[in-house]
Amino acid sequence: MDEPYYPYERPVTEIRYDFLSSSQEKEVRKRVIFTTADFRNFYNLALLDVLEDSSLSDITESRNKDMKIIMSTVIRIVEDFFEANPDKVVTFKGSDERRQRLYRLIISRDLAEIQKEFVILGISKAGISEPFQPNQPYEFFVILRK
């Protein structure tokens, strides 16, 4: 068809990665989803369990004793996301206070390694951003590629 047309955008609202958490007891399907946020070039990251009925949950506890491997996988996924989307910004937070604390501890433990490739910011409840500081409570985290 040679008729004139208006330019259009195909909205990309979700980018997803799937993987399996495996132990001797069970396998748990995991999904990392990046969804567009309210701000341009910002994406929210969610780590979810894919339940047997194919629904998604960010509150289940799989207790598969492989948290370190799961978090390493998520970091690799973030690297892959930034390879394909170098101008984007990623935000995330725990679905509850316990998970938020866990994410803060994991970032604190691996901060030197993470900072080789990324800039990590903590955002306070007052909305103030600062370079991530261990042992500081943050409302959410922001990741930028260096």
In short:
The chain is α+β, with helices and mostly antiparallel strands and 146 residues long.
Textual characterization of the structure:
The protein is of the alpha+beta class. Strands 1, 2, 3, 4, 5, 6, 7 and 8 form an 8-stranded mixed β-sheet that branches. 24% of the residues lie in helices and 34% in strands. The termini are far apart. The chain contains 3 helices and 8 strands; from the N terminus they run E-E-E-E-H-E-H-H-E-E-E. The longest helix has 18 residues, at 67-84.
Which features does this protein show?
alpha+beta, 146 residues, globular, eight-stranded mixed sheet, 3 helices
Shape: globular
Percent of residues in beta strands? 25-35%
Helical content class: 10-25%
What's the N-to-C terminus distance?
44 Å
Pattern of helices and strands: EEEEHEHHEEE
Structural class of the helices, strands and pairings? Answer: alpha+beta
Mean pLDDT, all residues: 89
Low-confidence stretches: none
Q: How many helical elements?
A: 3
Note the main sheet. Answer: 8 strands, mixed
How many runs of DSSP E, i.e. beta strands?
8
Write the layout of secondary structure elements.
Layout: E1 14-22, E2 27-36, E3 42-50, E4 56-57, H1 67-84, E5 89-92, H2 97-109, H3 111-114, E6 118-123, E7 129-131, E8 140-145
Parallel strand pairs: 3-5
Antiparallel strand pairs: 1-2, 2-3, 3-4, 5-8, 6-7, 6-8
